[in-house]
Give the backbone structure.
Amino acid sequence: MKILVPVKRVVDYNVKIRVKPDGSGVDLTNVKMSMNPFDEIAVEEALRQKEAGKATEVIVVSIGPAQAVETIRTGLAMGADRGIHVKTDGPVEPLAVAKILKGVANAEGPGVIILGKQAIDDDCNQTGQMLAALLGWGQGTFASKLVIDGEKAEVTREVDGGSQTVELKLPAIVTTDLRLNEPRYASLPNIMKAKKKPIAEQSPADYGVDTTPRLKVLKTVEPVGRKGGIKVASVRELVSKLKTEAGVLP
Ligand code: AMP
């Protein structure tokens, strides 16, 4: 069984985001980019399933500009077998990504597709769900545990106040949450080996998908900065300020 892992190239999670002066979006010039952290968890999970004998091949796919190949190489260096790069010029919205992934799934026939629960750039949390709907497959989102057993998979999901376990008929969609695993670092020999692993280049048109955006960004703003604190001289003053200024005490 093949496992397909879609991986997105996003601004590295350590980078402090700068909004463009005209508010049209986030400034990406000279910014460190990395694999979306939830996708690293997805690659790790696919590799563990393969190591446990539940899968035979792990394929990473990225939809994006030429540099998305670096993100695919990261997945290959972690241990994935091969990559697919669907080359695009501008940003691609979740629905178009899901439609392209449907085309990839139809061509490859994976038993499981493991995506991140969300990409940390746009925080959409849509692609996995849309892909499940387009393919007509079951979905186990926000997974903290995945057990593949023959034609079925059991997914433990992170839900408000606890966890929920669902059983899915394969093929199925799984999206990863933070507690699923801790991704491995690529070793130097594996980084070298990854350079020789194949990456097929495709275009959205190969899957009959039009990536023209359907949404228009009206404005992007920085979060409101935190105001400075003050020091109080006594508990009496603190209580008085909480009552009269902060309005949090009756
Ligand atoms: P989103 O719905 O944008 O929050 O993304 C959820 C997940 O969909 C990500 O964690 C990836 O696994 C996958 N995904 C989204 N965009 C892309 C892309 N351009 N290329 C590959 N995978 C993607």
